[in-house]
């Protein structure tokens, strides 16, 4: 997509006219019909012809409560009609706030996402130009919104990629290329370094796969002093069979998406670097493939971890918390970040609790929770708090190790997983865990099969902006 700023409408060109519900007086400037069959309901579209024979797309923005999802209205319009667009399309944006304008551009940019990366024959995409009509200088908004949208599209491509392409090593190479392009630091720790530095849990999860695990460490540190403002840890399981506690075959092909948390971390660090935010950030991705092999770790095994704690394995399908445990211990010990957030497609339990509309949020830091919650509602990338009560600690008791990785109970699965992670945070006062299993990958109006949503990149970047004053 190409975005340009223009100050006036050209009535010879196709134009998108956003309309709030019941507020249609401004349409007389663009159409000759006095009473179009259209009232501005959210994401409705009416295509008419202007006085010069140009197409006029009336786009419903709905009511005030719909403002948080304006990007979806623009995305759907562009997705449905872009095949007809050859010449530049104008977008009337004078009546949009800066936040709404950014959402509009973001939605248009995200409509360019093509899930068919691996098709042998692909339709040639149109290089669509959007001319954003606005009396004010909106150049900076255009550039930032397009950068955000393009980064989210890159992350979605990563999540939707098949596991035979997207190995842990591939994620490491992706991060190294991103670091070169966006000017931040990236180190990939391979088998030798993982063994010598003590990433025992990561190694255990990956030992049954021909594709060796890696830990990816990314740093963007523009401030020369003040330490690390925020550390991010992502679960990077590039495919999850469940290990010897093997999953059912139904929907097993979707387990390529089990690195959704890692994708968010990689995307956030890249985007923070692209936007040149004045914040010191470190991202750690603990990546492995959980496969079935004669060398796979077993239920009943006791493994070590980076922290020194021992873990009894009850279920090899509770592997994400194991790699996160090493990632959390590492980032807290090596970088001492002021705040830590980990993200993971961790449990089916959180989906049973919250469905597909919000991520589970776990933290004892009230300020972090309130800030992220507000940002999530403003972006329509919602989070919802779940408890970390001490009552749940008994579910992790092990007779033969420091703790076990799974309670074995059919209740409170997301909570006991979060309590497990908490044990590896060294009592950090500003740690948060986000279980994004229900929101990072699922049904979509833009694909026939389940696909990546792009959830989390905007959420965390806006949070970083908030806490750092950018």
UniProtKB/TrEMBL annotation:
Lineage of producing organism: Bacteria, Pseudomonadati, Bacteroidota, Flavobacteriia, Flavobacteriales
Provenance organism: Gelidibacter gilvus
GO biological process: proteolysis
Descriptive protein name: Probable cytosol aminopeptidase
Keywords noted in UniProt: Aminopeptidase, Cytoplasm, Hydrolase, Manganese, Metal-binding, Protease
InterPro entries named in the record: Leucine_aapep/pepB, Macro_dom-like, Peptidase_M17_C, Peptidase_M17_leu_NH2_pept
Its biological purpose: Presumably involved in the processing and regular turnover of intracellular proteins. Catalyzes the removal of unsubstituted N-terminal amino acids from various peptides.
Domain Cytosol aminopeptidase intervals: 155-461
Residues that bind Mn(2+) 1: 240, 317, 319
